[in-house]
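Inverse folding, one chain.
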């Protein structure tokens, strides 16, 4: 797996993070692994009681 983080936008207690992710899946007997690359936009909200950002939504688009 490879991934990269793109733009991060924070407005108040909401953040949007864009990533590009490449995943490999090697199935038994396969000559080569299958790969998929997607761009994912995550929406996060700051949870003050937990003291961390929580993912509340994600959207992916094939590359």
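Residues assigned per position:
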């Amino acid at each position: 797996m490879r991934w990269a983080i793109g733009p991060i936008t924070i407005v108040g207690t909401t953040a949007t993070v864009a990533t590009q992710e490449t995943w490999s899946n090697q199935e038994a007997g396969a000559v080569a692994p299958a790969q998929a690359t997607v761009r994912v936009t995550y929406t996060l909200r700051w949870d003050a009681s937990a003291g961390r950002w929580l993912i509340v939504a994600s959207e992916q688009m094939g590359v």
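The chain has no helices and four strands. The chain has one domain: 2-62.
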